[in-house]
Automatic annotation (TrEMBL):
InterPro entries, alphabetized: DctP_fam, TRAP_DctP, TRAP_DctP_sf
Name of the protein described by the UniProt record: Tripartite ATP-independent transporter solute receptor, DctP family
Keyword set, alphabetical order: Receptor, Signal, Transport
Gene Ontology terms: cellular component: outer membrane-bounded periplasmic space
Coiled coil: none
Subcellular compartments: Cell envelope
Pfam families: DctP
Family, per entry: Belongs to the bacterial solute-binding protein 7 family.
Signal peptide: 1-30
Organism from which the protein derives: Propionivibrio dicarboxylicus
Length: 336
């Protein structure tokens, strides 16, 4: 081989290395990482969005270089409600799912969409992190092919009315047109509270309150503040009728593909994320009542025991309750 040919061959190999190996090395490193795509409808300012950064940071600390966590907010990756199917198909690794999402496939889970089943955030964590949680999550894994890893507190729903009204028991809500999300489960809850449930899109609630199309709405107080529902309203009734949750879920197929030690680290990261969310959400809710008082709103603490008794009785007589495992309600109520 002549010196000119050797030089040409060397340059060609060098160029190939620059174009091929030079780019292949980082690509190979990325390929060696387990990708975790997270899809959520949460907006960046929400604790439910910020908790995913805690998940990512926790995993990077406990398993450096093993995972590539990709966080997609604002439902930019998958539309809200479609995530469970995407995880079952293997097109998505993680997402928060609701009790409403689960009950579509696992009807007995509808007990957690009912009013006054969960008393407060502490009760919520004890129920889902204890024997009951282990039991009710089994059919979720089997039927939905998603594995719940942690329970995040979504908020406690309260009633807000456009007029100054003294509400102490369900009978005091008779005739009140209360906006509810448009599904039979939500409408039943509104009726059980004693009101006249009125289905309406969330984006239409402010104007409907202002014009009197509806008499009130019910949401977690942070959501009501963010949407400025307090501006056309005068009364907050702390009914605490639904202590809501979302479950940090992982595709079962993807989760089973992880090594046992990786599974442990992913679960720990999910639990750290949920804990971060829960602590900040609870702190917000404690402080937010003072905010509404500062806006000149009347804040009422009704007879919650009477609300709970009335609402649970209505659920127990409903078709919905026929799907609930026998004795489960009593067991949930007994958790302290």
């Amino acid at each position: 081989m002549t010196s000119t040919l050797r030089r040409t061959t060397f340059k060609a190999l060098a160029l190939a290395a620059a174009l091929g190996l030079g780019f292949a090395a980082p690509y190979a490193m990325a390929q060696n990482k387990t990708v975790i795509r997270i899809s959520t409808a949460a907006v960046p300012e929400d604790w439910h969005a910020k908790m995913w950064t805690v998940f990512k940071d926790s995993l990077e600390k406990s398993a450096p270089g093993e995972f590539e966590v990709q966080i997609h907010l604002n439902a930019t990756l998958f539309k809200q409600g479609t995530e469970p199917a995407a995880m079952a198909r293997g097109n998505l690794e993680m997402a928060p799912i609701s009790a409403q999402d689960i009950s579509k496939i696992v009807p007995e889970f509808s007990i957690f969409t009912a009013g006054y089943i969960i008393r407060d955030p502490d009760h919520q964590q004890k129920v889902f992190n204890g024997p009951i949680g282990q039991e009710v999550f089994k059919p979720v894994v089997q039927k939905m092919e998603v594995t719940p890893l942690a329970t995040a507190y979504l908020g406690t729903r309260q009633v807000m009315l456009r007029e100054d009204k003294n509400v102490m028991v369900p009978a005091d809500l008779k005739g009140v047109k209360l906006r509810m999300p448009a599904s039979k489960e939500w409408l039943f809850l509104g009726e059980a509270l004693g009101a006249t449930p009125t289905p309406l899109a969330f984006g239409e609630v402010y104007l409907a309150l202002k014009t009197g199309t509806i008499d009130g709405q019910e949401n977690p107080l942070p959501s009501a503040r963010a949407a400025k529902f307090y501006e056309p309203s005068k009364t907050v009734v702390l009914t605490s009728h639904l202590v809501d949750a979302i479950f940090l879920a992982y595709s079962t197929k993807a989760f089973n593909a992880l090594k046992p030690e990786q599974q442990k680290k992913v679960v720990e990261a999910a639990q750290a994320a949920a804990k971060y969310n829960n602590e900040n959400r609870i702190k917000d809710e404690k402080e937010i009542v003072d905010f509404f008082k500062a806006q000149g709103m009347k804040v009422i603490t009704p007879n919650v025991a009477e609300f709970r008794k009335t609402v649970q009785e209505k659920y127990q007589k409903s078709e919905m309750a026929a799907t609930w495992p026998k004795g489960l309600l009593e067991r949930i109520n007994a958790v302290r």
